[in-house]
Structure formats: structure tokens, C-alpha cells
Amino acid sequence: MAGAESQASSSDVDILDVVTLVLTASRLIGGLSNLPLFKSAPVSLTEWLALSVLATKEGISNKILARTLGVTGQRANQLCASLSEAKLISITNAEDDSRRNVINITEVGKQHLSNLNSQLQALVLEALGARTPSLKRAGKLMRLMMRIVHAGTPELVAKQAKRREQNSAENGRSERLAGNK
To answer: Which backbone phi and psi does 39 adopt, to 5 degrees?
Structure first.
């Protein structure tokens, strides 16, 4: 019996560890903005995050940028105006709908982002030393926790179930069409 109890407790998640991880991540992100790197940079921490998103997702809308950054649409508009004024991003009308804007990072923006990322990476590697594998493990755990949180949100669970049903229906139609040929 004692063996079963110790095995159960070793696989249980210690909520204090989760809280510590989340608070540490939050402090780390907040602390980044105080680094001399960002105080002297031509962009703020939030603008850097926006450029990072735009570097990976070409041609996105303001709404998607806001959702990805976890900011309001108004704040995303302000970020885009600032970044556009600095010629780090371009904002154009979508080809399919002139009411919708498409945001892209410019070559100048990519260069600024690359410079900031190089400086930040050197700073982090210097600070971590041999602890890089621990950071990677913590990052994987954080991503797993985010999936768990999203999966536990009723609206997201319903959306995911609906998406799975639609995909199944589409796959069924494709198989029937392929069978008829």
C-alpha cells in the first residue's frame, strides 16, 4: 500500500511547482523590459514581441496579431502605427478585402529583430551557462501547461470538438469522392 501511495505522489503535479514556474516566467518577461538592451533599443519589449510574431507569420491581420500578443485591438493598432512609422513593418490592404489590413515585417524590421535576438541570446547564454537543458525542459513544460489550460477551457474544448467533426466530415466526403472515381 505504501508503495502505491509513493508512486501516486511521485506522478502528481505539485501545484506550488506550477505556480513557481508561472511566476518565474512572468518575472522573467517583466524583467526583460528593464534590460539595457531594451532600454536602448529602437523598439519596446512589446514591439519586439510583435516583430517576432510577424517574422513567423507573414501577412496577418491586426486582430490575429492582437490575439497572439494577448493585447487589445487598440493596443495592437498603436503598436502597428509605431512600428510602421519606424519602417519596421508595412501595412497594406488585403487583396481579397480592401477593408482588412495585412501586416508584414520589412527587411529593416527583420534586421532590427535579428540584432536584438542575437544580443538577447548572448545575454541569456552567458547568464545560464550549463543550465540551458533545464530551460529547454521548463519551456516544454510551459507549452504543455498551456495546452492543458486551453483544453480545460469549455469554449475551446467545444471549438476543438466542432473542428474535429468538420474535419471528419470533410475526410469522409473526400474518401467517398475518391471511391467514386
So the answer is: -70, -30
Residue type, 70: G
Give dist(CA 51, CA 35) in Å, integer: 18
d(CA 139, CA 155): 25
Which residue ranges form the domains of the chain, and what is each CATH number? 12-180 (1.10.10.10)
- The pLDDT score that the predictor gives to residue 40 is 72
53 φ/ψ sector (left φ>0, alpha ψ -120 to 50, else beta) = alpha
Give the integer Cα–Cα distance in Å for 68 and 151.
17
> Sign of the CA dihedral 139, 24, 47, 43?
negative
Q: Could you tell me which of 92, 70, 82, 132 has the C-alpha nearest to residue 112?
A: 82
- Residue (of 28, 109, 93) closest to 59 by Cα position: 93
Tens-digit pLDDT profile for residues 10-31: 456 667 777 777 777 777 766 7
Confidence of residue 178 (pLDDT cuts 50, 70, 90): low
Nearest to residue 127, comparing CAs of 35, 50, 51?
Answer: 35
pLDDT tens digits for 98-119? 888 899 999 999 998 998 888 8
